[in-house]
């Protein structure tokens, strides 16, 4: 961290004239594909339908991704670390819960032909998929890599290249979705542990985000070429914005908690529960 402005590209974000239509096309295609799948699901089973809140959640996630990726925030992230951190929060911590709560995999399973749905289910149950969606792996990918990004020259290296910037945003989005899915996603996850275990992983993520933000604010081991005041304000955005996102995720997880009811073992035949043999 230093006190000089480290300009990226040409100061306005190289590649943005070409990136804007590409991002708009991708996000619009995702929205149209989801809505067409919803329409098909409702036609296939009108009684069951598809929850409107699921659709609204998924579209909200796409909208948050658009706000983070497109002007004015997108280009500003190249020259202002505060804008970068706001972009990071939107793409990595706010858009993923909205997208995952839209249950796109469940929707896809409902509209695919039976043979294709079985193949998709087999993929979801495969060992690589089980590893990828395990909370420990998702935690390392989403939170553990932040230390690698901000404590090494990787951040400045990525921001110096348009492709590196887009790869970084893609990583934030994908790893964030994996973590949300592993902790509280509505889609099927065969390897998902119990709620108590998932709360522990979420707690570790909260603590890790807080420690990284505090180190960033104090300039401890941080390797970011940006003005000190920008880095400190970016750290504040990460600290408070991350807490809010993780509290919302914890609320979603607790809301889906269904404790198992303990059932009493049936009484032996010829004896009522609570009866004792006579001496």
Description:
This protein has twelve helices and no strands. By secondary structure, the chain is mostly helical. Helix 1 (16-44) crosses helix 5 (104-111), helix 5 (104-111) runs antiparallel to helix 6 and helix 8 packs parallel to helix 11.
SSE blueprint and pairings:
Blueprint: H1 16-44, H2 52-69, H3 73-76, H4 81-101, H5 104-111, H6 114-124, H7 127-132, H8 135-150, H9 154-159, H10 162-184, H11 195-218, H12 228-255
Helix pairs in contact: 1-2, 1-5, 2-4, 4-10, 4-12, 5-6, 8-10, 8-11, 11-12
Beta strand count: 0
The computed structural class is mainly alpha
Could you estimate the helical fraction of the residues in percent?
A: 55-70%
Kindly estimate the percentage of residues that lie in beta strands according to DSSP: under 5%
Radius of gyration: 23 Å
Molecular shape: globular
Identify low-pLDDT runs.
3-14, 261-265, 267-279
End-to-end C-alpha gap: 83 Å
The average pLDDT score comes to 87
Supply the number of helical segments.
12
For the largest beta-sheet, the strand count, sense and barrel status come to: none
Order of helices and strands: HHHHHHHHHHHH
């Amino acid at each position: 961290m230093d006190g000089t402005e480290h300009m990226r590209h040409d100061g306005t974000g190289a590649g943005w004239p070409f990136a804007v239509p590409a991002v708009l096309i991708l996000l619009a295609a995702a929205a149209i594909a989801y809505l067409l799948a919803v329409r098909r699901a409702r036609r296939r089973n009108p009684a069951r339908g598809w929850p409107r809140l699921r659709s609204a959640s998924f579209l909200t996630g796409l909208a948050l991704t658009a706000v983070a990726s497109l002007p004015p925030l997108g280009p500003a992230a190249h020259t202002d670390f505060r804008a970068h951190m706001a972009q990071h929060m939107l793409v990595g911590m706010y858009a993923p819960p909205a997208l995952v709560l839209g249950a796109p995999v469940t929707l896809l399973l409902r509209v695919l032909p039976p043979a294709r749905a079985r193949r998709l289910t087999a993929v979801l149950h495969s060992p690589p998929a089980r590893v990828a969606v395990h909370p420990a792996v998702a935690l390392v990918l989403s939170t553990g890599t932040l230390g690698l990004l901000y404590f090494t020259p990787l951040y400045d290296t990525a921001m110096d290249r348009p492709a590196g910037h887009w790869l970084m945003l893609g990583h934030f989005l994908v790893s964030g979705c994996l973590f949300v899915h592993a902790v509280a996603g509505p889609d099927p996850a065969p390897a998902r542990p119990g709620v108590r275990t998932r709360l522990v992983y979420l707690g570790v993520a909260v603590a890790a985000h807080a420690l990284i933000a505090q180190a960033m604010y104090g300039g401890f081991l941080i390797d970011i070429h940006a003005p000190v005041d920008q880095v400190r304000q970016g750290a504040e955005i990460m600290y408070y914005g991350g807490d809010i996102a993780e509290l919302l995720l914890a609320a979603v997880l607790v809301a889906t908690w269904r404790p198992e009811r303990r059932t009493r073992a049936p009484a032996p035949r010829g004896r009522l529960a609570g009866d004792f043999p006579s001496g």
